[in-house]
Specification:
about 110 residues; 6 strands; about 30% helix; alpha/beta
Length: about 110
Amino acid sequence: GIFGLSFVPNSCVITESPSIKLIDSLLKLNLHICVFDLNALETTRKIFGTRIQYFDKIETIIDRTSFGVICHNDDKLKRIFEDFKFEKKYYVVDCWRILKRKTKNLILCKK
């Protein structure tokens, strides 16, 4: 799952967004992509159409995937990830290092 699509949190602007570039690269590898953003789902849909899945709830993506990338420095994302009860191992690349608290079954991928 890709969490955060716009160039900055709380915006629908996706121009030059690293998330959009990441999605484009992952699609070239024929990967199934699920995305979440509070403001930029519709602008992202104009680019990718039905090639990716769009979700308005983070919890749904976490339940359907086993790996995610946090692409925004956003307190809402942080709270959801840190409070979520992970029933399975979930691997996360936290691009902004917003996750500080240890959470059962949440595995942070580091360099």
